[in-house]
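Sample intake — Zinc-type alcohol dehydrogenase-like protein
Collected from: Paraburkholderia lycopersici
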Amino acid sequence: MKAVALYRYLPVDDPESLIDVELPKPVAVGRDILVKVEAVSVNPVDYKVRAPKATVESTPRVLGWDAAGVVEAVGPEVTLFKPGDSVFYAGDITRAGSNSEYQLVDERIVGRKPASLDFAHAAALPLTAITAWEALFVRLNVSPQGADAGKSVLIVGGAGGVGSIGIQLAKQLAKLTVIATASRPESSKWAQSLGADHIVNHYGDVAAQLKAIGFEYVDYVLIFNDTDANFPAAAQVIKPQGGIATIVENSEPVPVELLKAKSAALHWEFMFTRSMFKTPDMIEQHKLLNEVARLVDAGTLRTTLGEVLGTISAANVRRAHKLLEEGRAIGKLVLSGF
């Protein structure tokens, strides 16, 4: 089967950083399903895993953690899917990724593809939807049924992949007042089109901008971009006894002491936790993705696809990595077909 892989961890401009390869077609066992991949999307985790380091792989390593496709075969213990089912999923960071014609994935972290979306539009959703859902509804314990309606949330990185679906979940399901950060006219327009009530610039004085629109504090903060740069402002504007959730690893110590006086909470969200540690509740991601699909088909949520960059090839995957590294992407970058 065709795949995009790496042997060495190199800068994205190096043509050897990601290469086209031929690999054996895998076989489904246990609770795995074998998916014929139709479309993938690219996330910051892809370029972070690919980032330059001395390690050299003895066999090709396939990256990619967002896909939509069709079930080709199932392992003997599979009960949730059958061959021919259309699915979408983010996969498991400890296993071979989705940048290949066929991929094995545990059925418990796979959902049924939204019937109203083609594969490209569906592939834009899984990783970011799981991340935003878990950050908002699991880590911060916000009600997805609207019991916290009227409370406020600041979403840092509103036009990115996670921010794009996070705005929708916060607005459409939680019924929160959504304040998103964006720094360019086009990213501001995108965030507003998804339901953001207010826009502030994360490069400016966030607290002053919030006060100017009537918010001394916000009930929740979701940091979807640069924890190091944005945590101090988040700590300043979080409401006493409020909660902050971040998805971005820090490179410097996080000054959590800033939260003490407010008894505010800091939560980490990493959507691969369940699959990495084989937690007993792994199947919650299957349920979550099925609910996202239902909400998409009902017209409550919409795809966050920003641009289709072409077919799944090394050159196009490198291009997607480069755009994400430069911080120029709005919404999700998708590749479709081989």
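Post-analysis note: The first strand starts at residue 2 and ends at 9.
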